[in-house]
Design goal:
188 residues; 5-stranded antiparallel β-sheet; alpha+beta
Length: 188
């Protein structure tokens, strides 16, 4: 009976070793230059769509205000003016302050290095203090540029993977790996 139990313990240890072996490992340093490249990419990729959406919403709100003023419904027109100001602050000034706050953060100012370990069903992101586990289905979009992979977790935030930072694996195989893991994701 002891030998059977011993076999299961050894099997579990062996399974743990196999599971924890990273298929890809990457070391990327986030610096001001890297962040600037990402911001430029993000603006070029989503800027026009963002502007068109904003102009469309502002146009609709302005049309409502004009209609309400034309029919002398001033109290509702004031409410729509407040909504317009709130929308403009939310869509224009908040992103600017978010970027400024991120740019002043320690990870950008002090050039923080992150280690990315990619496994079958998830990947981990590790710095000197923390480690995070992210499953591939949580990714929003993935983009490939000349120098980086951008793994977006939502419309605004992304993990930046330097193509020259692969310790285990290479960019071409990583590209195919991520494509298979997230085949329904928009990948460019």
């Amino acid at each position: 009976m002891k030998k059977i139990c011993h076999f299961f313990v050894d099997y579990d240890i062996l399974r743990l070793v196999i599971i924890l072996k990273a298929l890809f490992k990457n070391k990327t340093t986030y610096s001001k230059e890297v962040y600037d490249k990402f911001l430029e990419f993000h603006r070029n990729k989503f800027g026009l769509k963002y502007k068109i959406y904003n102009i469309l919403i502002i146009g609709i709100i302005l049309a409502c205000i004009i209609y309400l003023v034309a029919y002398h419904i001033y109290s509702s027109a004031i409410v729509f003016c407040i909504i317009l100001v709130g929308f403009i602050v939310w869509r224009f000034f908040k992103p600017i302050s978010d970027v400024a706050k991120e740019y002043k953060s320690n990870k950008i100012q002090n050039s923080t290095t992150y280690i990315f370990n990619f496994y079958d069903n998830y990947f981990t992101v590790q710095d000197k203090k923390n480690i995070s586990k992210i499953k591939y289905h949580k990714l929003y979009r993935i983009f490939s540029t000349k120098d980086f992979f951008y793994l977006y977790i939502d419309k605004t935030y992304a993990y930046l993977i330097d193509k020259t930072g692969f310790i285990v694996g290479n960019p071409k195989n990583f590209y195919n790996f991520v494509k298979k893991r997230k085949s329904f994701l928009p990948f460019r």
